[in-house]
Amino acid sequence: MTLLRSLLAVTLLLTFFISLSQAFQSDELLLDDEEFGLEGGRPQSRPSPNTATTTTTTTSTRKRIPDSASDSKIQFTLEHAFGDSDFSDAGNFSARLKTWSHGAQTLTKLRFSRDSFTDVEKNKFQELLKGDDFYKIRLPSNVLSPPGREYIVSSVKARCLPGDGLEEHFVIHTEGVNILGVNYGSPGACPYPRQLKLPAKWSFKSHTLLKNSEQAPRTPIFAEEVLGGEGVEGEIVMPIERSFWAKYWMYMIPLGLIVMNAVTQAMNMPEEQAGGQAGAPPQPGSAVQRGANSGVRRRS
Amino acid sequence: MAIRVFLTLLLFLSLSNIVSSIYEDQVGLMDWHQQYIGKVKHAVFHTQKTGRKRVLVSTEENVVASLDLRHGEIFWRHVLGTNDVVDGLDIALGKYVITLSSGGSILRAWNLPDGQMVWESSLQGSKESKSILNVPKNLKADKDDLILVFGKGCLHAISGIDGEVLWRKDFAGESIEVTDIIQSTEVIYVAGFVGSSNFNVYLLNAETGEFLKNNHLVLPFRTSGELLSIPGDKFVVLDSARSKIVTINIKNGDINYNQKQISDLIEDSSGQAVILPSRLPGLFALKINSWVLLIKVTNEGELVVVHKIDNTAAFSNALSISEDQHVFACVQYEDNKVHLSVKDVNDWNSDLLKENLVIDHQRGNIEKIFINNYVRTDRSHGFRALMVMEDHSLLLVQQGEIVWSREDGLASVVDVTTSELPVEKEGVSVAKVEQNLFEWLKGHVLKLKGTLMIASPEDKVAIQKLRLRSSEKSKMTRDHNGFRKLLIVLTRAGKVFALHTGDGHVVWSIMSHTLRKSEECEHPVGLNIYQWQVPHHHALDENPSILVIGRCGPSLTAPTVLSFLDAYTGKELNSLSLAHTVARVIPLPYTDSTEQRLHLIIDINKHAYLYPKTPEAIEILKREFSNIYWYSVEADNGVIRGHALKSNCIHEVVDEYCFVFRDLWSIVFPSESEKIIATVSRKSNEVVHTQAKVMTDHDVMYKYISKNILFVANAAPKASGEIGTATPEEAWLVIYIIDTVTGRILHRMIHHGCQGPVHAVFSENWVVYHYFNLRAHRNEMSVIEVYDQSRADNKDIWKFVLGKHNLTSPISSYYRPEVSAKSQSYFFTHSVKAIEVTSTAKGITSKHLLIGTIGDQVLAIDKRFLDPRRTLNPSQAEKEEGIIPLSDSLPIISQSYITHSLKIEGLRGIVTVPAKLESTSLVFAYGVDLFFTQIAPSKTYDSLTEDFSYALLLLTIVALVAALFVTWVLSERKDLQEKWR
Questions:
Q1: Which of A165, B94, B886, B935 is deepest in the core (most CB within 10 A)?
Q2: Tens digits of per-residue pLDDT, B891-902?
Q3: Residue A219 to residue B888, Cβ atoms within 8 A
């Protein structure tokens, strides 16, 4: 079941990795949307055309197909603050809440609609840019009963956001219906020192991503007879016996030198016999020929 | 140089030996081990009719020990677990040491001479209560002595011979707070209060435990509850206003009481009166202001002040030296001296003993005193006293002298830092050298003998001694390799010790006067110790200094004290009593022009204070104002928050050094499924040598190296208790790696069916953690290595040539993290008490994990065993790289215990410090014992080993030269012959 869930989550994550901007309108036909009830949505949040559907439908669906998961749609708001100002609404996330047959609930298919800045907010944001201050966002920690225990806060230096327009990137870490944390920031680099740069457009380009916990890799379990493990241990248990070289190098080197010396001596000797006095300073004023030299030798 | 290179080469050739162990004769050469017992709670002397005079003690570190009364050495010692607190200690039958522990539920008997456990009884009970151990004193040989134990709301009578529970009486239903048990031959009196004014006495049959009678007395006022029994059927207690003394007499089972105003006994009774818990026959001691009144309780219940003592430090219990003579000791302060007097209970005018003592001021006040008598050579009574000092040290005083002392404060080390030693001064006196010339020569002759294997066994012993005693090791100067350092440790008592790494001797110790027990500071405790000022290489004449932080009590709101100490001499340079509290201390990575490190102290009211309080420090902080981030973990709440500085505090007066901060981010863990059990971050002073790792296929992986990274382990709330309380289905462990500047979760992973306790160590780009796998019923260790993908495309050589790489640009935490994590788990045999990793000066040497096992030993494991890239059948290239074939469990090699045969009892922590020599790391492990050693994870590739035979090298060279000479002569001769031919 968990495998299925993670598979499903991964596919959903992949599909929703594509960013959804404010201007972007999905042309996907979402037929099954009618089945979803709106749970936990805040009353003042924008009304969805699908709110009319009641949750009873969902329950009946669940009854009909007991093994499959049932979905409902929920919304939660993004709030933002400029520096240390109070938080105000900044956009809406909507997602599907999948209720699995074993009772667990997961969020999938996250969508985001960002409210554009008002003029006041634009001014505030420009001030943040000038002061290299923080732009803060927050999300409820529980999407069913916002704000849950506490808000999830994240902040970024305002100068990181302006790119072409205003670019932001959310990675929302969820655990069931709880949001643990949000990685918020620019989608790419934010080189330090941060330069003051006003955005060309005041529209947001938002990238959102939902992340669930991954499974830790299982500990490999080997049968006793696997030689790999034992081989390692056998190798290790061996008492440390330093190698021959490590032990006796100080004897070997001089020995080698002596041997080499002896060899060269031995090799030199016949040569010396051949050209013995070659190294001796030549007689001044006389260009001694090789033949003459040997002649001298023979004479001596 | 050539030799070094050659040696390195050789070592690479012989790298297949990964074990670093030592030979038998190397034990104690570079390691030392010290045994302690902790602050003594109870002491019982055993001196009569024994060859070895000893004192039996139990301590706050839950140690039961037998000490040699002559020298203070440990005969035997048992460290009970951390939860097994010793409540009582006594000797039974003259041969067993009886200890009551674990809140009155475990009674053990230890054999007196050797400390073997004779029997153990586990006592059942239903509710928490005071635990009382009562071992009868006047033994009649023919009777099986009953040991009476009150614990967990039950009274047990236990046979002293085999620990069998003879009878038990449950008082849980009586709602009585039992405070005393009096045993007479036939009847046992159990006394206590119900509520605060209803005094109850139960009479029990000593043989069977039957209830005989229950008397009670309702006092017309409330009492303070501190009931003291006076041997002989009487009790004294103060009323709740502490203005009246109530004496209760329970003679023959009838209870009657008398009361007396304290103001009738002493004129100035304005202070708070306290009854001292010393048991004296017919007497009790009442402390009021600085006076101690000794008050006699007459048979009619009248109170008579018999003696008044000023400036009293401590009282001992009464000691009976003969049938009707009872004595006790009291200690008084006068100027710098301590007066110890032993008085007879019935005779106030004369002192049996009056001695003046000079006790080192650094030991603080005397907290407890135990006395013992002996017969002098002139047949008169002599007394010795065992004193427990404020710094937890233990002194034995006899004939006005300190016979021995034990620095048992070192059993409760709370924090450790290190300091370099001073640089050696030029010009060593010639006389010293000449004096030692003969010794030196002798030593070298011995060593030469040893290497030539012609040394006799006596010589060998001498060589070993010489090596151990080599003065080099414990010199008070810096050495070339950086092995000699000062370990500066802070104990729970607030005392700071500097230990020499060479042999572990105490160089200096100090107890700051601000961290002494006083009116303002009731229970001073040491918290942390930091390096305050580390002079740079060019300012060698300056002494480094350290910062000690202590608090007056266990709660966070207690006032805090800072103390600045000179690291070389231990002198206190300065001390501050802070107006604010201390919740956290953050050493900042900035220093001012005098090399003082900037510290930020966070209080509980969300203010941050900058230290040192200098304008220069403010300037530096202003410059880096926006780059200071920190985090806080609210473990109970399940929230982690990030903070940054905001602005100056707004008080009535502007405080330049006080700042308010704001929360930047928060991570909220769902309380129904996760509970924070461990957080670990990287060491701030760790050095990373290579940022990239070259894979077998010549691919490069960049390590994600960030100082601002935090490892968090969360367990399921149901499984956060002990192992065995949760099923595998309801246990899981969630692992997080979090960037602490932005609050981004970089990696998140769940281990199903696993639970804590989690011990972890974070180093470079990896974290290793230890936990329990419930499904496999085994301990496991996992590794996560984090690699940076954003720099992964910096592999192209052309990019480097053209300078198009992004390796030199500063890295900001606000980059979107592109990390990949590799992970692997392995089974591990041991439970773990602490994990640490070796650290070296440049970070080049490979790392070893140091694991403090449940057996109080330290095991070194090569990090290569915890490599996520281990595969079942590594290719040839992988093998060359050093990848070990995959196995399911980590091997435990008996030679890689760096503690070899020793145990660090009650192991609590391991500290590693880099030496100057790159290959070597210094390891200090502390618990009840202390242990220090050096470890070279990749062997000492950069220096010749200790056992390197210089003599043989010299001999070879001489032989070589001789051979050269001989051959040269020979060749000359031959040449001449040739020429003559």
A1: B935
A2: 888 888 998 889
A3: yes
